[in-house]
């Protein structure tokens, strides 16, 4: 059965002066160590050291506020539009002027999920997801924006995307083979159908899905339901309960703000088990 909980139920512990950590996905909570997920909260003027082990991968995005990252890759001023990929061995400091909230994730011992990991020369990457191509679902009103992919970051250990469900939207029932994944609800509320059993979801919820477990979402609220989801490893097979509703993702030719996207992505199916060209 998937694991579902809200960040309000997780105790916050101090990481540094003015910085607290809520450990959302842990081996103890999900009985698996393929990925870790934290929620960091920064007071105004706080900072936190980041060190990624040489065996691991990490990435983060701001959920609220702004921050500055200083490290071996230089200085980056970050907003809620950015996803930052931290390669093995990265070290740096994340600091804020005003209060901020960060979703921080990692894959320990990433060579388990990417045969080429040891030989790869992964680099720091900062992606503005608002400039990335927006893709629309063939059968419903959902929109997808890729956040972490082998094309963007150079590793098959992890893949991630943002999914937007307008009010009244429902996706088709499906499961994944070859990967486990989680969703973190950024905004809105709705219903998650987990093996056809309804569960309410809202902003701040984490939903951890094990391999082979059927799931889909309904936005039965009055605002967009927006979540990020990440898969470990990146390559997996999606199996749809109704084969007639296999989802194809169609390029809009625009970014989420209606402007020119930063790159092109071809139409592709969610049932594809390998990384589609351009993703």
Can you describe what's shown?
- With 279 residues, this protein is mainly beta.
- It has 2 helices and 25 strands.
- It folds into 2 domains: 3-128, Sandwich (Jelly Rolls), CATH 2.60.120.10; 130-269, Sandwich (Jelly Rolls), CATH 2.60.120.
- It has helices at residues 27-30, 150-153; strands at residues 3-6, 13-16, 19-25, 36-42, 47-51, 57-64, 67-71, 74-78, 82-86, 91-95, 100-107, 125-128, 135-137, 143-148, 159-165, 174-177, 180-187, 189-194, 197-202, 205-209, 215-218, 225-232, 237-240, 248-251, 268-269.
- Helix content is 3%, strand content 48%.
- The strands form 5 sheets. The chain has a 9-stranded antiparallel beta sheet.
What labels describe this entry?
mainly beta; Jelly Rolls; 2 helices; 279 residues; 2 domains; 9-stranded antiparallel sheet; 7-stranded antiparallel sheet
**What is the radius of gyration?**
18 Å
Strand content: over 45%
CATH-derived topology of the largest domain: Jelly Rolls
CATH class designation of the largest domain: Mainly Beta
Q: Whole-Å distance between the termini?
A: 30 Å
**General shape:** globular
What is the CATH architecture assignment of the largest domain? Answer: Sandwich
Biggest beta sheet attributes:
9 strands, antiparallel
Query: What structural class do helix, strand and pairing data support?
Result: mainly beta
Q: Please, how many helices?
A: 2
Order of helices and strands: EEEHEEEEEEEEEEEHEEEEEEEEEEE
Order of strands across the main sheet: 1-20-17-22-15-14-13-24-25
- What share of residues is helical? under 10%
- Low-confidence segments: none
Q: Tell me the count of domains.
A: 2
CATH homologous superfamily heading of the largest domain: Jelly Rolls
